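Please, is this right?
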Amino acid sequence: MEVRLFPNWRRPQVGLKPRREAQRPHLPQHARHCPVLEAGSSLGFMVYPPLEKHEAFKVWYEGEGLYRFVYYVNPTGTQWEGVLSVAVMLPAGGVGMFREEVTYLAPVPEASRENALLMARMFIVPEDLGTPAGAVTLRGAWNFQTPPGWDTVYTPVFNMIERPVVPMMVIRVETDWHVHESEFRYVLQPGQSISAAHSLPIGQGFFVPREDVSLRDCTESEVAALKASAGEFTERKAALKRTTSYGLQYSPHYRQMSRAQGASQVPTETGTPSIVQSSGTRVAPVAETVTDGTVGKTCRNEPCPCGSGRKYKKCHGQQP
């Protein structure tokens, strides 16, 4: 399946392109040997804000309908400096016009109220503030166009467990015909803030087919077959144990079976999505590798599929 990218209208060609990432910085070490957890983390493509490396911004919700946006730069790489601030005050009862106050925190060429408001709208959607109370909508650097019959689901970054966890409103959009900008609406509590930087993802987008799903009960013979399969899997998993260098035991059986299943299936148009850049170049989510005759998707820092317990880059992934 092919998904096409088009840039943020207000700041084109600025910001990282969407990509998959199976690792999370604060998950415990055992998560690196849990293929189902990594598969969940890499379900969608990370979406980043339209920021350069030396830029950042922060949005505060101060309560009672008051929000504050601050834009920062770090031109020397040593210290972040505030450039401008936009305070947004919602009307009482949520009905009527909201008020915007602009403050420049540093001398800026061509400084004007209009330029400051335009800068804020590159990153957030002021019209969405306060729906519901505390809501802040962040814009992505790149947007998705899916093939016919496929939708885009916008979610927070999966498996980010460090607190405080900011809730987000998940939406599903028919992006095969509707030109939709990647937007992520978080809901802050009074006194909370949310930050964005060049390499910090603001959410994930993944793709689902727009088709009906029906459910039915398994027959008795199907239930018996499933129980037998589960028992066989448990026995083989227990028989295939590995110990890491720091004493953690794990079994690579699921990962090996997953590789074998992937090798036996012929890719179709409705398989794993790939991203097509504006230049027309296809970007696969993870490089395909061949390991012991098994075709799979193995990152350099993942455990080697051969079951040695070593990282792939230090085992069968070593450069000749």
